[in-house]
Amino acid sequence: MDNQITLRVDGADTPLTVDTRTSLLDAMRERLGATSAKKGCDHGQCGACTVLLDGRRVNSCLVLAVTAEGQEVTTSDGLATGGTPHALHDAFVDHDAYQCGYCTPGQIASAAGVLAEAARGWPSAVTEDLVADATDLTDAEIRERMSGNLCRCAAYANIVPAVAEVAVEQGVRA
Fold it and tell me: Residue 141: is its pLDDT beyond 90?
């Protein structure tokens, strides 16, 4: 069964007719040409398809496109402002936090979500102070929160410092 929806991806509204079984990832890549989010496992296990849905991290391969209508979808590309890279983009380059680059857009979208979660004080499995207004993004916190994003090239040793640098700039790391 087909449904007429409007997806808002990276600030642009696009009307689409989609089958109710179409994933957000497939709608973005195949119908909108938004190829920042990658199809890795297509089972929600690798994080290559991570995007922000109304500011919260999701694996877009597990979200039905019809459920994303009326919500803001932000990919790694959408984090840039007027052609200026986001601080996370710059930090990933500066810290050589990528190898082949396949997982990088998902890693960056996830890192943006991590920074927002920590700023709101949302705890993780390793958070020590559960009643704090904000969570200090220690290396352990970053590793735990980014654990849903896999990198086949094992650039983790460079991803953590890249996220930590931006966390300091945004005041969510001491």
Answer: yes
